[in-house]
């Protein structure tokens, strides 16, 4: 990778642990008796979990197994979804599977606690095995996708590393301050199938915002669209507002909106038309001259609501 900073990668932690099954089940009993409070005494606190993950990983699909976990008469386990894929034969010993459920493993899994896989990115969350997937799917520390829209970019990371990636690798312009005045110039305005798009990053209020400028067809009508995305979570994005303005010859088009989180892909934002949408004819009119070349001046402002 061409830039520094904490970029999350998929390699799991290497340490493994030994589960104390007794402790796990004893603890489960305590909770079933209705005293879930402090679990510190008996519960194995798992933070690095290769061994457990292997134990709970289906040998057929390699996904984590959730109840009902199926086992063959010799004790090999697999997930219930894969039972049909293997024609009722154990993938490990080829024995006929039958309908044996591995309750012990299900209960052990239930009693375990895991740290979030994004712990190294700052998440302190400890979840139960069965809630782990759900949490990680929504974890606010999960890496962001690169917000660059011009090509498919597989880089993910936290905001700081993505800002560095945008400026270093995508050569995106970075602007300081909360007001801007941008000119978009394009000679061949007939190219509107995703042909014009630009991204500028703004740094204000200690945060980063991406200004997108795109060309596409809305139905059959060629349009330009400008919108702002916030480099962070949606709840924080909602604390900001922004306005965009274009005009010429005494006409003005103004958009006031709330920046969208970069968790929402730019395509999603575009499809919801949550931004300043300018019909091409109007954009060319605003451009002046012979109405063939796009010379659009977009003025904008970002503010904090609270
Ligand atoms: Zn499976
Ligand atoms: Zn078997
Ligand atoms: Zn998390
Ligand atoms: Zn990228």
TrEMBL record:
Pfam families listed in its UniProt record: Sina_RING, Sina_TRAF, Sina_ZnF
Organism taxonomic ancestry: Eukaryota, Viridiplantae, Streptophyta, Embryophyta, Tracheophyta
Record's keyword terms, sorted: Metal-binding, Transferase, Ubl conjugation pathway, Zinc, Zinc-finger
Top-level taxonomic group: Eukaryota
Residue intervals of the SIAH-type domain: 111-171
Pathway participation: Protein modification; protein ubiquitination
Keyword Metal-binding in record: yes
Catalytic activity: S-ubiquitinyl-[E2 ubiquitin-conjugating enzyme]-L-cysteine + [acceptor protein]-L-lysine = [E2 ubiquitin-conjugating enzyme]-L-cysteine + N(6)-ubiquitinyl-[acceptor protein]-L-lysine
GO biological process: one example: ubiquitin-dependent protein catabolic process
GO molecular function: ubiquitin protein ligase activity; zinc ion binding
Enzymatic class: transferase
EC number from the UniProt entry: 2.3.2.27
Limits of the RING-type domain: 58-94
This protein's name: RING-type E3 ubiquitin transferase
């Amino acid at each position: 990778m061409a830039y520094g900073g904490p970029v999350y990668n998929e390699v799991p932690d290497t340490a493994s642990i030994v589960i104390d099954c007794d402790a796990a089940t004893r603890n489960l009993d305590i909770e079933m008796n209705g005293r879930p409070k402090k679990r510190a005494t008996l519960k194995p606190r798992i933070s690095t979990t290769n061994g457990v993950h292997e134990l709970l990983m289906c040998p057929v699909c390699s996904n984590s197994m959730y109840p009902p976990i199926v086992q063959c008469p010799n004790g090999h386990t697999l997930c219930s979804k894969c039972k049909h894929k293997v024609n009722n034969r154990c993938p490990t010993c080829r024995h006929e599977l039958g309908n044996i459920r591995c309750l012990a493993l299900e209960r052990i899994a239930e009693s375990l606690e895991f740290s979030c896989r994004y712990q190294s990115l700052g998440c302190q969350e400890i979840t139960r095995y069965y809630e782990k997937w759900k949490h990680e799917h929504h974890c606010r520390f999960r890496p962001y996708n690169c917000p660059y829209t011009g090509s498919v970019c597989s880089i993910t990371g936290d905001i700081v590393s993505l800002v560095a990636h945008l400026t270093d690798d995508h050569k995106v312009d970075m602007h300081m301050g909360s007001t801007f005045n941008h000119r978009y110039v394009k000679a061949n305005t007939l190219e509107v199938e995703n042909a014009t798009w630009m991204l500028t990053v703004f740094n204000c209020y200690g945060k980063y915002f991406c200004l997108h400028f795109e060309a596409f067809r809305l139905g059959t009508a060629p349009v330009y669209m400008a919108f702002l995305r916030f480099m962070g979570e949606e709840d924080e994005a909602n604390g900001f507002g922004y306005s965009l303005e274009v005009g010429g010859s005494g006409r003005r088009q103004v958009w006031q909106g709330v920046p969208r989180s970069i968790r929402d892909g730019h395509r999603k934002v575009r499809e919801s038309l949550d931004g300043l949408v300018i019909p091409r004819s109007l954009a060319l009119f605003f451009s002046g001259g012979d109405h063939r070349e796009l010379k659009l001046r977009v003025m904008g402002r970002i503010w904090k609501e609270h």
